[in-house]
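can u do me a favor
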């Protein structure tokens, strides 16, 4: 099976080829670029974005916190 590859923009503005990416890596790359490479995707506040629920590991931490509070 051929490896997935896609071009993404790097912080310096160059296009780089991303090979063997997973769904999570692709989302992180998109969110990082959207945020201008200045902040971590988990700190995003764009609640209307379709990727907002998948932007980082916040949902895992919230789930653990809810489990310990129950």
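np, heres the sequence
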């Amino acid at each position: 099976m051929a490896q997935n590859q896609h071009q993404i923009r790097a912080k310096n503005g160059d296009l780089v080829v991303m090979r063997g990416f997973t769904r999570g890596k692709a989302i992180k790359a998109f969110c990082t670029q959207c945020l201008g490479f200045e902040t971590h995707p988990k700190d995003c506040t764009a609640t209307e974005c379709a990727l907002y629920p998948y932007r980082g590991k916040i949902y895992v931490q919230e789930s653990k916190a809810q489990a310990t509070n129950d």
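Residues 5-69 form one domain. hope that helps!!
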